[in-house]
Design brief:
Layout: H1 3-66, H2 78-90, E1 94-100, E2 106-111, E3 117-118, H3 128-136, E4 138-146, E5 150-158, E6 166-172, H4 176-181, E7 190-194, E8 200-202, H5 206-211, H6 218-229, E9 235-238, E10 244-252, E11 257-264, H7 265-268, H8 270-316, H9 331-359, H10 365-374, E12 383-395, H11 397-403, H12 406-426, E13 430-435, E14 438-443, H13 452-475, E15 482-498, E16 503-508, H14 510-521, E17 526-529, H15 531-537, E18 543-549, E19 558-563
Parallel strand pairs: 15-17
Antiparallel strand pairs: 1-2, 1-6, 2-3, 4-5, 5-6, 7-8, 7-11, 9-10, 10-11, 12-14, 12-15, 13-14, 15-16, 17-19, 18-19
Length: about 575
């Protein structure tokens, strides 16, 4: 642990910890008190809201009760009709009213939106509203959304005497919005009502009710479920806007609904948050004081240490030319000297590693090591030299890649490249690049070799043997793949070419084009070469002279020789 941290932590503990203990204690006890107060407040508001909605429903029930005070007579009753119209006028939530006599026949139907019916005589005796009202005096039906938007409920009230019949009303629950809108908790708290299945039937935002979108109101059902799981407590949850709220619930017993009162958590715990901000301000002030004292006490002592730390960071980040200048005459100065020596050694090591990495992109590892040891990076500069150029590629690979799965294509290429790279490395060739299923290899550049043509032909022979072994397994699965090689020898311009971000070692010249053309006409298991390469090989390896051919890009017929491939003794 640094000296600065030691002093800082000691002073921090002396100043900040008492403040922290006091702040945490105040926050904890304040939270408990506020939580209990909010629980009582929201519970009282929920019960009050439930009572208001119950009064709303009972008011409609009482008005319906007036319509079934007297028994029915056999003749049409104009007074009943006037009483029914008066009920519609006095109770706006009732959209339609139907009066049924003791036998269950409909005697009167009045509506705000439909046609009125008098003495229709329709049999309503089997209607659940009639049977349930006769059994329980009052019946509240389930909530239904007419037209997929406005919530309605059927309410039925039976007379005190069976002869008085039953009054059945379709009640528009949209009018509960006036009751809900008047309920406020704090500045932004509000209430909403869910029916027994959990559908929203009243909310300050009436558009939520009229849309009847159960997906949008799912958070409200989840909030009710959380409250039911912990009855008697205010529960934190999410509302339809995604805000965290504190909510309490009270049942509306006569209809089986639930009224939930909620208040945003930010507003509910506003006093607690204010206390926390005060405590945080004191903590920050104490921390600043402790930091100032620690800095004043340790500045002179920690200055050299910071200088060493900065130097170590720079060297660790790769700035090996950075040097730590420290003249204290003690162990810290000796440590700085060791850091400087280490930076110099790392710079040399990095330079050598980067140089070998660049060389290994196109040279065999042993050749790259040789160039690095001799310091012969100039060997990669552009020059004109006689080289043996070898091109090779797969036969039938285009058709194979068109019909095979991508995994199979990439698997063949991976194994094929491994074989080529292994053979090229063994023969100390310069692999300039892979291109699709082909490759280009140079001999006598950048590192001179005594017999480039023979060395290239021996490598081509080993390539054929090893690649054919690889392809033999593929032919068993009807993959008609082959391997051909073209070899030419002559003068070419060789050297590094590319941009500052990427350099490649390659050859340019007529001999490169000739080797590529020979490769393109070589059949499976063939190694074709030009006359210059054949003369350089001589009789050391068996060759067969083929008919001269005119190749693309060349005006005169080219003499072509084929190597005899077999096990060498």
């Amino acid at each position: 642990m640094s000296l600065f941290r030691k002093y800082f932590l000691a002073l921090f503990a002396a100043v900040v910890i008492p403040l922290l203990v006091a702040g945490v204690g105040e926050a904890w006890f304040g939270y408990r008190d506020q939580r209990a107060s909010l629980n009582d407040l929201l519970d009282a508001e929920a019960r009050a809201a439930a009572a208001k909605i119950q009064d709303f429903m009972e008011g409609i029930r009482d008005q319906l009760g007036w319509a079934v005070l007297l028994p029915w007579s056999e003749n049409a009753d104009d007074k009943r009709r006037l009483d029914a119209l008066l009920v519609l006028r006095q109770v706006p939530p009732i959209q339609s009213l139907s009066l049924v006599d003791a036998s269950g026949r409909e005697r009167l139907f009045v509506s705000r939106i439909g046609l009125n019916r008098f003495e229709s005589g329709a049999d309503r005796s089997g209607n659940p509203a009639v049977t349930e009202a006769r059994s329980h005096r009052v019946w509240y039906g389930p909530v239904a959304f007419q037209g997929g938007s406005e919530p309605f409920m059927t309410m039925a009230v039976a007379g005190n005497r069976a002869a008085a019949g039953v009054a059945i009303a379709e009640v528009n629950l949209k009018f509960i919005w006036d009751v809900i809108l008047a309920i406020r908790v704090g500045r932004t708290g509000e209430a909403f009502v869910l029916d027994r299945p959990g559908r929203l039937i009243a909310h300050p935002d009436i558009s939520l009710v009229l849309r009847a979108d159960e997906t949008a109101t799912r958070p409200l059902r989840e909030l009710r479920a959380a409250i039911l799981a912990r009855p008697g407590q205010a529960i934190a949850g999410q509302d339809v806007t995604g805000n965290t709220v504190l909510a309490a619930m009270a049942p509306i017993g006569n209809v089986g609904w639930s009224v939930i009162v909620k208040q945003p958590l930010v507003e509910a715990f506003g006093p607690i948050y204010a206390a926390l901000w005060r405590t945080a301000a004191l903590l920050v002030a104490g921390a600043i004081l402790a930091a100032a004292l620690a800095y004043w006490l340790t500045h002179r002592m920690t200055g050299p240490i910071h200088l060493l730390e900065d130097g170590a960071s720079r060297i660790g980040a790769g700035q090996f030319d950075h040097r730590i200048n420290l003249a204290t005459g003690d162990e810290l100065e000796r440590l700085a000297t060791r850091f400087n020596e280490m930076a110099g050694e790392l710079a040399l090591s990095q330079e050598r590693s980067e140089r070998i990495s660049r060389l290994r992109r196109f040279l065999a590892p042993q050749v790259a090591e040789l160039i690095d040891r001799t310091g012969g990076d100039h060997m990669l500069d552009g020059r004109r030299v006689e080289v043996a150029v070898l091109f090779c590629d797969l036969r039938g690979f285009t058709a194979f890649s068109a019909r095979a799965e991508p995994e199979a294509v990439m698997g063949v290429l991976g194994e094929y490249y491994d074989v080529l790279e292994r053979v090229v490395t063994a023969h100390e060739g310069t692999l300039t690049n892979f291109s699709g299923d082909g490759a280009m290899v140079l001999f006598n550049a950048p590192v001179p070799c005594a017999d480039p043509a023979l060395q290239a032909l021996e490598m081509a022979h080993d390539m054929q043997i090893d690649v054919q072994k690889l392809l033999a397994a593929r032919r068993a699965f009807d993959h008609r793949l082959g391997f051909g090689v073209g070899l030419a020898m002559g003068l070419a311009t060789v050297g590094r070419i590319g941009s500052g971000g990427r350099l490649d070692y390659t050859a340019v010249g007529n001999v490169v084009n000739l080797a590529a053309r020979l490769c393109s006409i070589a059949g499976d298991f063939e190694i074709l070469m030009d006359r210059v390469a054949a003369r350089a090989v001589g009789s050391r390896l068996p060759l067969i002279e083929l008919d001269a051919r005119i190749l693309k890009g060349f005006d005169k017929p080219i003499a072509i020789f084929a190597a005899v491939i077999g096990d060498r003794k």
